[in-house]
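Section: protein folds

Sequence with per-residue C-alpha cells
===
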Amino acid sequence: MLSRRVLALLPVLALLMLGGCALPDAGLPSYLADRTRDIRIVGTIEEPNLEAIAALDPDLIISNEVRHPEIYDQLSGIAPTVYAAEVNGAWKDTLRLVGDALNKRADADRLLDGHLRKAEELGRRFGDPAATEISMVRFTGGSVRLYGRGSCIGTILDDAGFGRPPSYGDEGAADRAAVAGGPLWSALPVVRAGKAHEVSDDPWYLGIGPIAGGRVLEELARYAP
C-alpha cells in the first residue's frame, strides 16, 4: 500500500517525495521552489517539532541516523519510521531506500538511470572526460573545504567520468577573497588558463540527489570544449 502522507526530516528527501510531505526549516534552495511551495515546516533540522509532526498524522517518516538517532523511538511512536544510514555521497542508496519505503522502487531506479545517462552524455562532450581533472573547492568564510569522491558532487563527477586529483591536502584557513587574491592562487596553471570557475553552493555543494545532480550537469555543459 502506498503511503499517502510522507514526512521527511531532511531537505534532500524533499526531492524524492511523490505525495504530501513536511520538512524542518533549513532554508530550502530556490531551484526547488516549484516543488516545495506546499511543504509544511515542522521545526528545524537540529530540533524537529515532534508535536507538529504528530499533528500531521503522517503515514511514514523518513530521516537519517546521522541527524536524528536520539529521537527514533519518539518518531516511530508517531508513524512507521525509516532511517537512511548515511548522507551526502550515499544519496543513491538513500533514493533506493525511499523508493522501497514508498513502494516506488521502479521510479527511483528510473531517476538513477536517467541521471547516469545524462552524466555519461555530458562526459562525452568533453571527449575523454578522464583527461579533464576537476577539483571542487568551497570557500566558506573562514575555511577552505575540498570535496573528494565521497561527497555528492564527487559521485556526480565520477558518473560523468571526469578525472580527480590524487590528493587534496589539508584544509585551508582563509576565505575566498584572501585565497583568490593571493599570489599562489593566481600562479596556479588552471587559474592562468582561465579554467577556474565559480559555482553556487546550491546545488553544487549543498544539493544532494537527482535534481541537484541534474542542475550540476547542466551547468558543467557550459564548459564543454
